[in-house]
Design a protein that fits this description.
Layout: H1 12-17, H2 28-32, H3 38-41, H4 59-63, H5 71-74
The structure holds iron/sulfur cluster (SF4) (2 copies).
Length: about 80
């Protein structure tokens, strides 16, 4: 099956606005890998425990008309 198309481009402008680094779910493993912008890059392999998600207040989510949460666990936003 073909990969579903990503909605959010992995560009510096989006990565720099991403709120993931300040999120309570963003664990030590994710920090040491400097992981962020999961709505574009997809899920982490760091097995985070869901402790809240800041995506709902993120300007990137707003710009692309997204409304989901926990992209770090569920995977990137698809069309
Ligand atoms: S919507 Fe979530 S994953 Fe995407 S850039 Fe914003 S905080 Fe990061
Ligand atoms: S996708 Fe949501 S839960 Fe995961 S690190 Fe980013 S803001 Fe936090």
């Amino acid at each position: 099956m073909a990969e579903n198309e990503r909605i959010v481009p992995d560009i510096d402008k989006n990565a720099s606005r991403c709120l993931c680094p300040g999120c309570p779910t963003h664990n030590e493993c994710m920090k040491s890998n400097e992981e962020r912008i999961f709505c574009s890059r997809g899920k982490t392999e760091c097995n985070p425990e869901k402790k809240g998600c800041l995506c709902g207040t993120c300007p990137v989510e707003k710009e692309y008309g997204l409304y989901d949460f926990y992209y770090c666990v569920e995977g990137y936003a698809k069309k």
